Amino acid sequence: MILDSKTPEGPIKDKWTKHKNDINVVGPANKRNIDIIVVGTGLAGGSASASLAEMGYNVKAFCYQDSPRRAHSIAAQGGINAAKNYQNDGDSIYRLFYDTVKGGDYRAREANVYRLAEVSVNIIDQCVAQGVPFARDYGGLLDNRSFGGVLVSRTFYARGQTGQQLLLGAYSAMNRQIAKGKIQMFNRHEMVELVKVDGKARGIIARNLITGELERHSAHAVVIASGGYGNVFFLSTNAMGSNTTAAWKIHRNGAFFANPCYTQIHPTCIPRSGEHQSKLTLMSESLRNDGRIWVPKNLEDAEKIRSKTIKPTELKEEDRDYYLERRYPAFGNLVPRDVASRAAKERCDAGYGVNSTGEAVYLDFSAAIERYGKEKALVSGIKQPSVEKIIELGEEVVEQKYGNLFQMYEKIVAENPYKTPMMIYPAVHYTMGGVWVDYNLMTTIPGCYCIGEANFSDHGANRLGASALMQGLADGYFVLPYTIGDFLANDIRTGPISTDLKEFEIAEKNVSDTIDKLMSIKGDKPVDHFHKRLGKVMWEFAGMARNKEGLEHAISEIKTIRKEFWENVRIPGDKDEMNTELEKAGRVADFLELGELFAKDGLERSESAGGHFREESQTPEGEALRNDKDFAFTSAWEFVGEPSEAILHKEQLEFNDIELKQRSYK
Length: 666
Ligand SMILES: Cc1cc2nc3c(=O)[nH]c(=O)nc-3n(C[C@H](O)[C@H](O)[C@H](O)COP(=O)(O)OP(=O)(O)OC[C@H]3O[C@@H](n4cnc5c(N)ncnc54)[C@H](O)[C@@H]3O)c2cc1C
What we know:
Layout: H1 12-22, H2 28-31, E1 35-39, H3 43-55, E2 58-62, E3 80-81, H4 93-103, H5 110-130, E4 155-156, H6 162-179, E5 183-186, E6 189-197, E7 200-208, E8 214-218, E9 221-224, H7 245-252, E10 257-258, E11 263-269, E12 292-296, H8 299-306, E13 320-321, H9 323-327, H10 337-349, E14 361-364, H11 366-379, H12 387-413, E15 422-431, E16 434-435, E17 448-450, H13 467-488, H14 502-521, H15 527-542, H16 548-568, H17 580-604, H18 628-631, E18 633-638, E19 647-652
Parallel strand pairs: 1-2, 1-9, 2-5, 9-17
Antiparallel strand pairs: 3-4, 6-7, 7-8, 10-16, 10-18, 11-15, 12-13, 12-14, 14-15, 18-19
The structure holds flavin-adenine dinucleotide.
Flavin-adenine dinucleotide is lined by residues 39-45, 62-65, 71-73, 75-80, 162-163, 190-191, 225-228, 237-238, 242-243, 245-246, 282, 429-430, 452-454, 466-469, 472.
């Protein structure tokens, strides 16, 4: 089956405007009679809920945390992109569009990416109006910094807490509607099943996580905004609770799952410290604006550093290998994440790693501290400042820009990153793959939409930094609120959907049976045992580098782990109460299916593209080598039972406005 993306006709710059003019609209009086369920209240779901309610729809919003404010989006550090060209450095909608398509290694849908770039400018205005405290320059105008894969400064930020501030903005917009009764908020509720009536998404089954009770909720449309599935690797920078359950349940009900193997491994994370770790920590990409990445030039020095015979600060400039600046002079330390991660792995695999496990490189701020210190001394009129004074002033500037990140690093690693370079290593961070959606953000189930990181989104095979927040908020504030009307216009006379319908009864019974099955296993291994094993297989065979043999092995290993999970998992407590092990078990059961599809997708795609690096397909310099002749498509998988038997559908990608060529950041 060839998938229809419903991309509008016409020149790319007019498509979105034309589409908005062409689609159906629900009148204000009728919106009052229409209910929409939104699963997830992170930046995507929060912004969508607020906008839909503001427009007049009745929204029922769900999250598993105790408040929308605790969504994983709050962790976002570095910033959000927008093509405002405030820095007058030649930015434009086209340039943001181009950078994003190229950054994603030409595996994204052109029309969607153009629309994203187009609405990016509105997002900043919207958030400023909500009071989001973006950083400002001396003159009071909004400030920008750079992120990887681009040559302009277009990233808006609020120190290292951009996600938190944006989420507070979306949350206050939601609260306004909660107070007016237009949003009914269901905190501590987990969607565990989709309900379809006559083939359309008409409701969900949710588990009240406090009482364990199963609840039926109906609506005229269901929006999934449940975030990404990076935790399939067990260790990732995602919040511990991030999971794939909502997305996987709709996949099992007919929503195709696109490009599951496209995962982002972020180059600047705090390295693993041991086997007992349950979480990894990101050091924002914004740090690469000023931090320089290096390893020792000589193997002997690397060995001395590992054995702590010498300190990194003792290594002379000429004995350091700033390998990104050496390999990619044009973009230097700001190459895209997939490129930077692979380059770090290459150096560490070759023996140049700098921590005890050999899996770390340096991110060094000494040059920036000196540069900023000299500049500040000049501005402050300090004549012939001492070295100590320069460093003191420079550290003050760095603290203003990245203070909370430095503090976080020091708390975790117990080293002062102002005085000694940070140690970093790549870690799983973001998933470009997700539920397949058309131009309207509708899945292959009528009336079921998917937004934010949960959909396969606009990032192709690699997401550029600061573009996830842009996409989540574009989907929630500016795209879905228009496109959903096209479907709902047919429902103005439908009336309330009854939860007494047999479809709800059957769905609830299925959930109840699955919970009973899980509780009755009474095995002797906790849920995490299986999750960790899954994560290890994923990291080793479907991580930063993949090959045919490894992926085949991963598929069979995951099947084995899944079988053992269903025979031997131990869930203490009861189902009719708060039971976090039961919650985890349900999520891991879904990860154990998704992991297999992930590996299958990676096996099928024998080209390399962005974050999907097939060892069989690389240039002599070790860069990802695409095969456009055979693989210029989005893989969309249909569930038919076992994940490894899923049926592949293709959405052919067309490049009319950007020339298709191998990526280069040199
Ligand atoms: C450490 C870190 C830093 C980052 N920094 C940046 C950055 O600087 N810039 C950038 O652009 N991107 C950044 N990202 C990526 C970005 O934060 C995420 O992609 C984005 O926040 C995802 O938003 P979302 O709304 O799609 O999902 P989330 O914020 O993950 O929200 C998911 C929501 O779904 C709910 N949910 C999930 N499943 C269910 C269920 N079954 N039932 C009910 N509710 C459910 C949750 O409760 C939550 O409300 C960062 C990511 C990480 C990990």
